[in-house]
Design a protein that fits this description.
The protein is α/β, with parallel strands linked by helices. Helix content is 47%, strand content 22%. It is elongated.
Length: 292
């Protein structure tokens, strides 16, 4: 049979749908056609093939032996076409970039800036995942990760150092007198319980607190400082926006604590244009923080 002898695709689709659903009316609903239009297409197909495909059975229809054979073939053919199109569309669709970032850094530094990346690269879809420490790129399907480099780095990773971790006390202006008089509550994070002691040892001229209160995360500590609950020993990245907007004061500034943040990706990854754009943007944002 020549390709020119193959019936019209619309007629085959109408027949396959009637055969699968067992009803001309149901087929019309699926195909968004009238009952009469479906019937005409099926009748035309039977006439073109010179075959009886359907026959009456009570108030309904049933397939003839020839109809059943054609229905099986068209069902497989349309199924293959559907699956192939889905595969092609999936392969041609750019997958979102998953960026993993430590929770407090994501909430207080990355997310407030991420709209700038979206405005500049509206076609690049970035999904944000939070986590800390080591992780598995393949298992977590992560493209890039931002981490404080306080854990062993896998030799299969490429690490770009973004910015040193700098810390310092931040507080409401109304708490300045209490701070200077040593009548303040020191707010810290349970993730770094010794941070205040280390900072005080490095700044012997600074007043010591009357008590220390630890919260679960740095972003909670920053919110507590904004709420006037005490003086937070905050990483610069966590408090930078509040200090810039004069919501919090930083009387001693921010000093390096000996660690760095790094931008991490596997050495084996092939950098797409989208990934390169996100990587460059993150590096630029970290440079702004260091010079701000």
């Amino acid at each position: 049979m020549k390709r020119s002898d193959i019936p019209y695709l619309d007629d085959l689709r109408a027949f396959e749908t009637v055969a699968r659903l067992g009803s001309v009316r149901a087929a019309g609903g699926e195909l968004a056609l009238t009952h009469g239009a479906v019937s005409r297409r099926v009748s035309k197909l039977a006439a073109d093939l010179n075959l009886r495909l359907l026959e009456a059975e009570g108030r309904g229809l049933r397939l003839t032996p020839d109809g059943a054979t054609l229905a099986e073939a068209t069902g497989k053919a349309f199924g293959l076409i559907t699956a192939t199109l889905a595969e092609i569309r999936s392969a041609s669709t750019t997958a979102p970039l998953i960026l993993s970032c430590e929770r407090s850094l994501a909430m207080r530094w990355l997310i407030p800036r991420l709209s700038g990346f979206q405005d500049r690269y509206p076609d690049v879809e970035v999904h944000l995942s939070t986590g800390g420490g080591a992780f598995d790129f393949a298992r977590n399907r992560v493209a890039l990760a931002i981490r404080r480099l306080d854990f062993p780095v896998d030799p299969s990773w490429t690490v770009v150092r973004l910015m040193p971790e700098r810390v310092g006390p931040v507080m409401l202006a109304a708490l300045r007198d209490r701070f200077e008089g040593g009548e303040y509550v020191a707010l810290g994070s349970r993730t770094r319980p010794g941070a205040w002691e280390a900072w005080l040892n490095a700044h012997p001229q600074a007043p010591r607190p009357r008590t220390l209160r630890l919260l679960d995360h740095h972003f909670l500590m920053a919110e507590a400082a904004l709420g006037g609950l005490g003086v937070a020993l905050a990483p610069q990245a966590i408090a930078a926006d509040d200090v810039a907007l004069a919501r919090l004061e930083s009387p001693f500034g921010f000093d390096p604590d000996g660690t760095d943040y790094g931008l991490i990706h596997p050495k084996t990854i092939t950098a797409s244009a989208e990934l390169a754009a996100l990587r460059g943007w993150i590096i630029a944002q970290s440079e702004v923080l260091q010079t701000g």
